[in-house]
Amino acid sequence: MTVGTRRFETASIVKVNILAALLLRQRPPGRALAADTRRLAEAMIVSSDNAAAEALWDRIDGAGGLIAANRTLGLRETKPSPHWGRTTTTAADQLRLLTALTSPTGPLTPTDRTFVMGLMKKVIPEQRWGITAARGSGNPSAYVKNGWDTADADGGRWLVNSIGRIVEPRQDWLVAVLSDHHVSQQEGVRVVEKVATYVLKELRAATAGDGPAAG
Q1: Domain that holds residue 101
Q2: How confident is the model over 185-196, as a mean pLDDT?
Q3: The CATH number of the domain where 62 resides is what?
Q4: Fewer Cβ in 10 A, N or C end of the chain?
């Protein structure tokens, strides 16, 4: 389920897309990343290191490499920018990305899917806000990547995005909340968490009694 068709700047959520593009370039598919590349990938996702993202952006050949990867990943509404953080996307495309990264029928090997989810599960505590606020009871597993930045075109207001996965005993939720025009990062985080919590509450109620599903 998605609401709205607006494009938003990705900020750091595009780092998950960069990692997927990097993994798709491995030959043969599923080949382990070189040690230095693996360290950069971990820094890029776990602590949102921008220098690591810049290095890996160059290794996938920048915007052109992301466009090529996104054809394979099934993304249709993501437009890369020469500066990776200015890439624009939609909530629907972020759900397509998450589906490609988690589905057994997706383009990544099981090893690569495990690697990506493992890094998203290890994101440092101070960056584990966003969709993780929507976790239900029972200590479900949560995988997250957030993005935040000020936008000059919006008078310096904040854009705040959160994408990821919440795996509960009976459900496997894929969630993407994109937002902008916030007076502060803290306000943006509050809004994103409120939206994620509300949506999953409603989806849990709507699917009560159903089998496992993604939403």
Answers
A1: 8-206
A2: 98
A3: 3.40.710.10
A4: N
